[in-house]
Amino acid sequence: MDQQIKDLITNEINKNEVCLFMKGTPEAPQCGFSMAVSNILKILEVNFKGVNVLENQNLREGIKEYSDWPTIPQLYIKNEFVGGCDIIKEMFENGELTKHLETKNINFKKKD
After folding, report:
1. Which of 13, 15, 54, 65 has the fewest other C-beta atoms within 10 Å?
2. Using CB atoms within 10 A of its CB, is residue 45 exposed (0-12), middle (13-18) or buried (19+)?
3. pTM of the full predicted structure?
């Protein structure tokens, strides 16, 4: 992987407590999986940075190598790779995602 791409990925993960590498943007996702994870974060009112991998082919391939995870989207919370769409959906449904956010001291909207 190109050092410039590696640095770009590292910077985004370090600068943003919650960082989602996705296809498209949170406002205009370009795939259903990216939309699903983005919507979960929006439902929880988590402040997150969406990084559009479609803007750069090297970034799109680089993030897969960086995390050793073959698919996009990829969610990072406080420098830690949490998972892709299926994992995040499952964590959201069984309450693990909110527990994880609490553990990492990330602000989100708690359900009543």
Report:
1. 15
2. exposed
3. 0.96
